[in-house]
Design a protein that fits this description.
The protein is an alpha+beta fold and about 450 residues long. About 20% of the residues lie in helices and about 45% in strands. The chain has a 16-stranded antiparallel β-barrel with strand order 2-3-4-5-6-7-8-9-10-11-12-13-14-15-16-17.
């Protein structure tokens, strides 16, 4: 871990010490300003060194040596009421990011107008509402488990959007129903391999509708759907596109050699001698650009959630589907977690699974039988690495316990038993997909046990 990371990591530990004697929330004497905070100090130990366990998109993770990075975070949130119906909210959070650093980031910054008793309007930067617990997914104290279930929450690489939403709440019999229409753009960095620079993920022109129903006797239900235009900007994928199209990148000898071969192919100096085979190869190389650099393609996400919290029992479950018109795979993810409170302790068990419903095929398959094949195989291998990142299938069994040690602190211990099939990396981070270790992990069935311990706090 770098010196920079070590300097920033103690923020969570410092906040933990501070909150032990702090009130849960600060409020100004006139009642117009309120401030609170939350955080997690978490440790994770992975059962393998072949792949790293993290929250998908982070720039590193836990191996057998263990790590504090995946779950540790701290945040402060403040709300100021400018008028009885107008307020502003901001949230600043420090957590492990796609570049492997702890840097404070503005998660929320929005204005709210309570236009009517049942109608509220917001505009600014807000939590992206893809899931049942989107608004408090980072607040470990508010959740039973150590972290939101990764087989579901790991499917979407963004956590916020900039735009606006409108929520209308009404009572129907004994139930309270809230409908929220939202629209805006999302942007995030996502790390799919430690040796590569993070990918910029853009989801633009999003529009979504969520319906939340608070039912009687502890039950609540949520249904949501959103759609937008997905664009991925990746340095490594752009280099692969250059390799396939014959462009030269300074300092990259493999690309330079490939550029000469591709240039000759495109000028007909090679393709003409190969006849129809040369044209097939050229057509396959032309497909690489659109495949590895999607721009403005359709993307949708649909989710259904159900929760129960009454007396000693607590249950949460979600069923979700992701679809895109790109190499980013179509997936289905679901989980269910059941807990039972015994005084200050809540033991829990969970089951979850994520499967890929559609995968893109590598278009580069035709060899020439000439010296051009070394170049073709290089492009083919690069495309396979890109597609391998999207092989996410895995299933997880979770056992854990939560101890509410104080009124503002919870301590949790959790074991995740993860099984990933052949031809899948699961939700793990592969540091370098080109290595033999990475290929062996991808091409074999693995069972990995992950141990997590966390201290969640609010202040």
């Amino acid at each position: 871990m770098s010196e920079k990371k070590l300097r920033r990591l103690p923020l969570a530990a410092a906040a933990l010490v501070t909150c032990m004697g702090a009130h849960a929330e600060y409020q100004s004497p006139d009642g117009n300003f309120r401030m609170s905070g939350f955080g997690t100090l978490g440790a994770v130990k992975n059962g393998t060194d072949d792949a790293e366990f993290n929250y998908p998109g982070q720039g590193g993770g836990a191996t057998k040596r263990g790590s504090l990075s995946p779950d540790s975070k701290v945040a402060v949130q403040g709300t100021y009421k400018f008028a009885p119906t107008v307020s502003g909210t901001a949230q600043v959070m420090t957590k492990y990011d796609a570049e492997g650093q702890y840097i404070p980031n503005i998660e929320w910054a929005f204005a709210k107008w309570q236009a009517l008793p049942g109608l509220s309007l917001r505009a600014g930067r807000m939590g992206a509402p893809y899931f049942m617990i989107s608004d408090f997914r980072d607040v470990g104290y508010a959740n039973t488990t150590v972290r939101p279930n990764l087989d579901v929450y790991g499917q979407v690489p963004v956590s916020q959007f900039q735009g606006a939403d409108a929520s209308y709440q009404m009572s129907i019999g004994a139930s309270t129903v809230t409908a929220t229409l939202w629209a805006g753009d999302s942007k995030a960095l996502f790390n799919s391999a430690s040796v590569k620079a993070p990918t910029e993920v853009l989801i633009q022109g999003q529009i979504g509708l969520n319906i939340q129903a608070e039912l009687s006797e502890g039950w609540s239900m949520r249904l949501g759907r959103s759609q937008g235009k997905l664009t991925l900007n990746s340095e490594s994928n752009s280099n692969l596109r250059a390799l396939a199209s014959g462009q030269t990148i300074a300092g990259d000898s493999a690309t330079s050699q490939g550029a000469a071969a591709a240039g000759a192919l495109r000028r007909g100096q090679i393709a003409g001698g190969l006849g129809a085979t040369g044209q097939v190869i050229l057509g396959q190389l032309n497909q690489v650009d659109a495949l590895v650099n999607p721009s403005g393609v359709n993307a949708t996400f649909t989710g259904f959630g159900l929760s129960y919290d009454q007396d000693n029992w607590v249950f949460n479950g979600e069923y979700t589907k992701r679809k895109t018109d790109s190499f980013v795979t179509d997936t289905t993810g679901w989980y269910g977690t059941l807990g039972y409170r015994v005084e200050k302790f809540t033991p829990y068990i969970g089951l979850s699974k994520v499967v890929t419903n559609r995968r893109s095929a590598n278009p580069v398959t035709q060899l020439s039988g000439t010296g051009l094949d070394a170049y073709i195989l290089t492009v083919q291998g690069g495309v396979n690495q890109v597609l391998g990142v999207e092989k996410l299938d895995q299933k997880t069994t979770t056992l854990g316990v939560r101890w509410d040690a104080t009124s503002n602190m919870a301590i949790k211990a959790q074991v995740d038993h993860i099984i990933k099939p052949v031809d899948s990396n699961g939700m793990f981070l592969i540091p370098d997909p080109a290595t033999t270790t990475a290929q062996n992990f991808l091409n074999s069935k693995r069972t990995v046990n992950v141990l997590s311990v966390s201290v969640d706090f609010v202040f």
